[in-house]
């Protein structure tokens, strides 16, 4: 059951399955087209469906199975957590194993896909890392980090020296003095 104060809202598993089938099936069709172009024999453009069409069908079945199972398990458990993508991933990966025809492959592909998709969802569903506060604007977060890690200009000048866009207070006067000492040229102070 959902925690107190939060109610679980059921999701449409059939609609998600249709969308998953179409999207992942389209990707499978692209992979099938690539396989068809890389064959040694010329099999015509229809080879995408006749010769390597099983790839497109497998992709479509995996996408539909994953999406349906993910939402159906969420609806049955009334929880939206990382176990749902893992269950969907296991069944989708098992379809890959069924194609090879051995039981260890079914369980192996299923377990691998379940672990990868469950871990991906658990870590925030992003390849760039887990977002700490989804309510905070990204620009504001970066501005806070810049202000939080800002160093005093004196410390930067002591470590790097002046020049290259880093100038401390009174730099023009010190520069004019150095040029006068070394070259004997008066530099107008601006």
Automatic annotation (TrEMBL):
The keyword Transmembrane helix applies. GO terms for biological process: mitochondrial electron transport, NADH to ubiquinone. Keywords: Membrane, Mitochondrion, Mitochondrion inner membrane, Transmembrane, Transmembrane helix. It is found in: Mitochondrion inner membrane. One of its GO terms (cellular component) is respiratory chain complex I. It is a multi-pass membrane protein. Its main location: mitochondrion. InterPro entries: NDUFA11. This is NADH-ubiquinone oxidoreductase kDa subunit. It comes from Hyphodiscus hymeniophilus.
């Amino acid at each position: 059951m959902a925690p107190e104060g939060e109610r679980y809202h059921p999701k449409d598993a059939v609609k998600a399955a249709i969308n998953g089938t179409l999207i992942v099936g389209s990707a499978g069709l692209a992979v099938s087209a690539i396989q068809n172009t890389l064959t040694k024999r010329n099999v015509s453009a229809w080879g995408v469906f006749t010769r390597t069409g099983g790839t497109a069908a497998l992709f479509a079945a995996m996408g539909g199975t994953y999406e349906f199972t993910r939402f159906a398990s969420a609806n049955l458990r009334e929880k939206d957590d990382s176990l749902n993508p893992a269950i969907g991933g296991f069944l989708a990966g098992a379809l890959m194993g069924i194609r090879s025809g051995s039981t260890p492959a079914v369980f192996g592909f299923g377990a691998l896909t379940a672990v990868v998709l469950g871990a991906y969802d658990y870590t925030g569903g992003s390849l760039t890392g887990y977002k700490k506060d989804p309510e905070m604007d990204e620009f504001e977060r970066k501005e806070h980090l810049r202000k939080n890690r800002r160093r005093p200009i004196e410390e930067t000048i002591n470590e790097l020296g002046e020049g290259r866009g880093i100038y401390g207070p009174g730099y023009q006067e010190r520069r004019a003095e150095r040029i006068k000492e070394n070259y004997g040229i008066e530099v107008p102070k601006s």
